[in-house]
Specification:
The protein is α+β, with helices and mostly antiparallel strands. Helices cover about 25% and strands about 35% of the residues. The chain folds into two domains: about 150 residues, Beta Barrel (OB fold (Dihydrolipoamide Acetyltransferase, E2P)); about 120 residues, Lipocalin, CATH 2.40.128. The radius of gyration is 23 Å and the shape is elongated.
Length: about 280
């Protein structure tokens, strides 16, 4: 290795070390709570800072426990004096940091209470000690079925956000998998993925004639289902009814809550989708 190349490596290494090891500190009071992992801090110059809590990801507002997660963080922080340790901004311009209130790590408290996940996709931004502590806190909350962990297999917010983008129809690729004289059944095979003991998949029911039995008629329904391949069960995770065919047109009804498990009915569209998702098609 020549001397010039070695000096470049040393320079890069030193810059990297500085970037991950230094952190700024912000003092202020919490004047707003947007959700379970985002708050507004007002400093002593009356400047507002939007803070994204580092190392955690809370349920989105429309997810189960989304509101409770926000309430939990509000009870912990609102109108409190805090210290924020930070060293980066995210792509949305938010300051990403750890919030200390009354000597406690608020980010960690959310995970302990079962109000947020440890955000492992960004755990490299944490110290090794924090990674271990947050991961252990999530394991304990899950074992105790605290907060969102009352559901044995809750949908992480990063998956939910992907599902919402896909549910808009922007990138769906529908494959016809069945149907009858009343409807055609489609599945987006690219969305099949395992989730715990189940399998999740987006599907579409396209009707030959509008369903007028509901408050507003619709011609197609997009659904995110979870399938229990061994137990032959299914449940709705999200769905939307559309005024036009193939998931187009105005959304006339939307459901974003997790339904109960039900047995897969024989000779039904659900049975077809269960076979596709479970690799039995």
């Amino acid at each position: 290795m020549n001397a010039h190349f070695f000096r470049i490596l040393l320079l890069v290494a030193s810059l990297f070390f500085i970037n991950i090891s230094t952190a700024d500190t912000l003092l202020g009071s919490i004047v707003g709570v947007a959700d379970g992992d985002t708050v507004i801090v007002l400093d002593d110059t009356n400047t507002q800072w939007k803070i994204r809590l580092m190392g955690i990801d809370a349920p989105e507002k429309k997810q189960p426990f989304g509101s409770k997660s926000k309430e939990s963080l509000s009870a912990l922080l609102f109108n409190k004096q805090v210290e924020v340790e930070f060293n980066k901004r995210d792509k949305y311009g938010r300051t990403v940091g750890r919030i200390i209130v009354d000597g406690a790590d608020a980010n960690l408290e959310q995970v302990k209470a079962g109000m947020a996940w440890h955000y492992k996709a960004y755990e490299r931004e944490q110290s090794e000690a924090d990674r271990t502590t947050y991961a252990h806190a999530e394991e304990q909350a899950r074992a105790a079925k605290r907060g969102l962990w009352v559901d044995p297999d809750p949908t992480p917010p990063w998956d939910w956000r992907k599902q919402q983008k896909l549910g808009s129809g922007a990138v769906a690729e529908w494959t016809e998998v069945g149907g009858n004289e009343n409807q055609t059944v489609y599945a987006d095979l690219a969305t099949i993925h395992k989730a715990g003991k189940g399998v999740k998949m987006w599907s579409l029911l396209d009707l030959k004639a509008a369903d007028t039995t509901t408050t507003r008629p619709y011609l197609s329904m997009k659904m995110l289902n979870e399938f229990d391949c061994k137990g032959e069960r299914y449940r709705f995770l999200a769905s939307s009814n559309h005024y036009e065919n193939m998931g187009n047109g105005e959304v006339v009804y939307r459901m974003d809550r997790v339904a109960e498990w039900n047995p897969v009915p024989p000779t039904s569209a659900v049975k077809t989708l269960w076979k596709v998702a479970c690799g039995k098609w």
